[in-house]
Amino acid sequence: MKLYLTDLDGTLLDHKAEIGRxxxxxxxxLIDDDIAISYATARSVHSAEPKVSCINFRLxxxxxxxxxxxxxxxxxxxxxxxFGEESKAFLKSFFYEHKExxxxxxxxxxxxxxxxxxxxLNKGTVRYLKDRAGDRRxxxxxxxxxxxxxxxxxxxxxxxxxxxxxxxxxxYNKNGFSRNYQPDTYDTNEYWYEIYRYDVSKANAAxxxxxxxxxxxxxxxxxxxxxxxxxxxxxxxxxxxNATDQLKALATGIISSNEQSGVxxxxxxxxxxxxxxxxxPLHVAPDNxxxxxxxxxxxxxxxxxxxxxxxxHATLKSYFASSLFDKEIKIGNYFADLVTENGIFEIQTANxxxxxxxxxxxxxxxxxxxxxxxxxxxxxxxIDKSTGEILKSGRTVTSNDMTDFFMELYRIKQYLNSPNxxxxxxxxxxxxxxxxxxxxxxxxxxxxxxxxxxxxxLTFLEDSDSYRCFIPDGLPEIFxxxxxxxxxxxxxxxxxxxxxxxxxxxxxxxxxxxEFLYKIT
Length: 521
Known about the structure:
Layout: E1 2-6, H1 21-32, E2 36-39, H2 45-52, E3 61-63, E4 68-70, E5 77-80, H3 85-98, E6 102-108, E7 111-116, H4 123-131, E8 138-140, H5 144-147, E9 151-158, H6 164-171, E10 177-183, E11 191-197, H7 202-212, E12 217-222, H8 228-233, E13 236-240, H9 245-250, E14 253-255, H10 262-270, E15 283-284, H11 288-294, H12 310-320, E16 327-331, E17 334-340, E18 343-347, H13 356-362, E19 368-384, E20 390-393, E21 397-398, H14 403-411, E22 421-436, E23 447-461, E24 478-480, H15 481-488, H16 493-502, E25 506-512, E26 515-520
Parallel strand pairs: 1-2, 1-12, 7-8, 12-13, 13-14, 18-19, 19-22
Antiparallel strand pairs: 3-4, 4-5, 6-7, 6-9, 9-11, 10-11, 15-23, 16-17, 17-18, 19-20, 19-21, 22-23, 24-26, 25-26
Helix pairs in contact: 1-10, 14-16
């Protein structure tokens, strides 16, 4: 069994310390498929739970950088690491003398408590307490003796007065202690010095969890220096692209960032069978002679597309079919439009949400290509419904607005990074026929038919790199949504950026005033 162990802040959580929608849907799907996934965090289980409550973690989790292993359902502490009485006495004496602003983590009557002295608060601890307003673990100690009550397992100094080098002389693998010193994930100008028992580390806890679950392989993910120990004992270790350079140097490989759902994307692909198929170039010139031969009538009965799209659906189905016997093949409980030597083909003009249950089955059986007809050129013709005479022909309109396409991709976003999925955009020219009375006034009884006339181009989105074709010309390497919209010229820039971020083409890098900053990866 593979055990996947991920850090939270900066690795699974995004820059807002939240679980993105794509991460949520992918992680739950993976867990439902019985893939062993847990997390190892510096947070307590009480602090972590609100952040990850949308994910159905079932396996024991590692908290406080390895001080505890906890059942995420019952909150039972399975493994604990409290300071001994001698260590408590040393800590109490040291911080009485040095008068640092400290947060003391302890367990009293089976309840966790985070104690502090109001007269010693500094800017960092004030912010920490403000961010956790309403957290019942926060406790203002009445005096210095009460500050050190209970079974203590963790001491935190935010922006300590004493230099880290001097503190290391007492706490860095000395006097029965270990420590972690690193910048805060969300405010890199603020440094935390954290003190644990000598045998507390993500590494020791990860190995213990691996043993408890009888896992054959430990695969870990992280972004910061407190993940170094975990990386050192893992069978494989992966740094998200926003990780520190120090961690990247130790990694087996670099994966997509926390903003791009790098962890679930990697786990999904690490556990799938990659089916063989003939990969296509980005742009393919169509065979319009073949396309014309495949053009079906609206009375053909072929295809199950939505109203007014039946002819397009049937024509494209025939175009991609190798033979008549390829069509409507049952796989599991669902029928595939086509099953060819190059995998499964689904012609989908809209409503990609209906593909989700199909894709859950099809991707496990074969490579899947979804063909999306895009009406690149269109013309409206008014037809006399009694005689068939053309009453009026409109001008040909060319469209570059891909908003509807990106909206459809959003509905299947959890599959976009699968190596077993190709999206094919079929640029077509269509005639929109409106069968009406001779006066051409619109009536409810008018029949509308969309007829494909020829195929302009096929665009195959085979991998994340192929999505770069949607990056507009003139876009700077670091840009805002406003700049993207200006370069894009037509369509909804917001949904385009979201999709390009999901597939790893662009990434979030920070804020400038009230605007988010992105970069081309």
